[in-house]
Structures are given as C-alpha cells and as structure tokens.
Amino acid sequence: MSITPIIGQDTLQKFIFDNAAVRGEFIDISATWREVLSRHAYPAPVKKLLGEMVAAAALLSANLKFNGSIIMQIHGDGPVRLLVVECDADLHLRATAKIDPDAVIADDARLPTLLNAHGKGRFIITLDPADKMPGQQPYQGIVPLDGDDVGTVIENYMLRSEQLDTKLWLAADDNVSRGLLLQKLPYNGGKTAVETAPLTEDEALETWNRAVILGSTLKQEELLSTTIDVLMQRLFWEETIRVFEPLHPSFHCTCTREKVGNMLKMLGRAEVDSVLEEQGHVGVNCDFCGQHYDYDKVDCAQLFATDAPVEALIPASEAKH
C-alpha cells in the first residue's frame, strides 16, 4: 500500500482490508480548513469542534453514492448555538459557527458545555439531492446530542439511524484538520459489501475488532503532527490493504446573489421594506464565506416583482439591518 500526497492539496484516501469486512478512510483536509478559518475568528475550543466536523463531513460524504449535499449540524443550547458543515458530491465544503455574542468561552471548554449545557442539543444530518423530483424533500435525521466529542456523537448517530458500526478519530487546531474513519461492512452469510473471500461471522467480527484496536492507538497529537501516508503505514503495516485513487476535497461556497435574493423574498416584502426605510438599502453577508451582497430600492422592487419560486437556504444568511 502506498499514498503519494500532493503538497498543498487536501487528500481523502479510501482503503479496504483485503478478505475482510472493514473499510476505511484517512483524510487531511487542512487547506480547506484554513480557508474556513481565514473568513472567521473563533475561540480555540470552537475551532477544534468545527474543524473536526469538517473532516467528519468529508469522510461520511465520500461513502455516499448520492448526487447532492450532506449538511451536518449541531444545534446547541449553550454558548455555541450552531455548528454547520456542508459537503457536496464533489467534496466541496464550507462551514460556519454561530456563537452567543455575550458568550465567554474558556480555553478548555468541551462539547457538552458549549453545545449541550441543558441537555437540549441536537445533531442533524440532512441529505439534500441536487436534482429533486417534484415534491421531493431532503432527508433529515435528528437525534439528541449523545457524546462528549464530535466523533462519538457521529458514531452514535450512525449506529442509531443507519445501523452501521462506525469509528472516527478526529483532530483539528488552527492549521490542521485530519481524521480516520473505519466502518464495519454488512455481513450476509459469509459475503460482505465488497468482493472478498467468504468469511465466517466470527472472522468478520474479529477483523473489525482488530481494526478498531489499531485505530484506537491513534492519539490526537499524532493525528495533528503526522501525514496520513505515514499514519497508514504506522497503524496497518501488518494488514493487507487495498488503497484506492485519492480524492481531493476543497473549499467552495455556493452562495450567489440569486440565492440571497430568494432569502430576502422569504423574509417578506414588509420586512424588507422596513429595512429599506431605515437604512436605504439591505446588506447581507454570507455566513460561510463572508461575501457581501447589497440591495437598493430598485433591486428589492425587482425581487418582489417576479413570481419565481423561492428556495430555502440552509442556513439562511445574516441580514444586516
């Protein structure tokens, strides 16, 4: 097995244990993560959580045979109100966080304190098809915020909602975002989801347990300081592994003037007119990339003069009154 990373380019590396029932992915998505941080200033604990979600969203998206976007959200009831990462089928990602403006966040604050202070936090995954059929709605799974870190929350979601044994090791700081995903493939009378030699159920379980034990030796400091090609060799050097062509995630924001206009139409004519009367224009900043959009009275009149359908945005951009 060998990985040849391209310097300066994010890499997602899929692999599978030969003649076994385990698949995995390593990701180094640090360049995309730095693009996210270049547009936002977050406290260190929020950076860690959001950076881990960026890695996790790409890891999960790469396993989906789905033409659309996966939107991963944690809605909090503490000082952090929202963490959201969106990743499409081409592994284009964007991410943002909403923090209570009066929040004082300690450097050692963790997920339960930040997002589940009163036990009302929620973890949500939305699958939004790119080409919806008439009347088709996005699929959305919502579960309580069950776990003390991002990896555990997602593992519990995958087991509860998708019945998939999944293990995640994630790490992020100001410069680096990396992760490892292992997933137990479905067992069906000696056959797995890939073409391998027949396995007994005990053999399949033994392989899965061994892979998890190996993965569990990986520490966050090691993830942050070691490239994924070295990590692959270090963890699985005794295993027979097939490595696939690497994928390359990147930062990309899908905001457009048309989508922001649709958001203003959702607010309604009365709300927009009140802002125009007060400010003389409506300014909107994209929550993800910070792009500013400005609408004067003529622009707003044109918005409400058309009967074009309004599409919901997830999440809505921030209107500047």
What does it look like?
This protein has helices at 30-37, 44-61, 111-115, 150-161, 201-215, 220-225, 228-236, 257-267, 269-279, 297-305; strands at 11-17, 22-28, 68-75, 80-88, 92-99, 122-129, 139-144, 166-172, 177-184, 241-243, 250-251, 282-285, 292-295, 318-320. The protein has 321 residues and is an alpha+beta fold. It contains ten helices and 14 strands. A hairpin with a 6-residue loop joins strand 12 (282-285) and strand 13 (292-295). The protein is elongated. It has a six-stranded mixed sheet with strand order 7-6-3-4-5-11, covered by helices on one side.
What labels describe this entry?
single chain, 321 residues, 14 strands
Helix-and-strand structural type: alpha+beta
Helix content: 25-40%
Taking Cα atoms only, what radius of gyration do you get, to the nearest Å?
22 Å
Low-confidence stretches: 309-321
What is the strand and helix layout of this fold?
Layout lengths: L10 E7 L4 E7 L1 H8 L6 H18 L6 E8 L4 E9 L3 E8 L11 H5 L6 E8 L9 E6 L5 H12 L4 E7 L4 E8 L16 H15 L4 H6 L2 H9 L4 E3 L6 E2 L5 H11 L1 H11 L2 E4 L6 E4 L1 H9 L12 E3 L1
Parallel strand pairs: 5-11
Antiparallel strand pairs: 1-2, 1-10, 2-9, 3-4, 3-6, 4-5, 6-7, 8-9, 12-13, 12-14
